[in-house]
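As a warm-up, study this chain.
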Amino acid sequence: MIIAFSVTPLGVGEGVSEPVARAVRVVRDSGLPNSTDAMFTTLEGEWDEVMDVVRRAVEAVAEVAPRVSLVLKADVRRDTHDAMTTKVESLERHLDGTG
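Now compare it with the structure written out below.
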């Protein structure tokens, strides 16, 4: 499965990069395929391992924030692997006319 999620610390003021970095560190340390952009972190793996990483990322932020907001979107498929890469490659082929 692929998930895109965002963890937002609440009650810590305007600057949230340090608490968010705690969540991203958990994701990167997980060893699962991942990427982070300005809005979401995307993660790929099996259901239990992905959800465990999300839980630990939320807990890491909760250590320094009195409240945490979580937004999560999932693409649950059993018939594919490396979808983080192959989905983007397919899109790029269609954009350049070779797809």
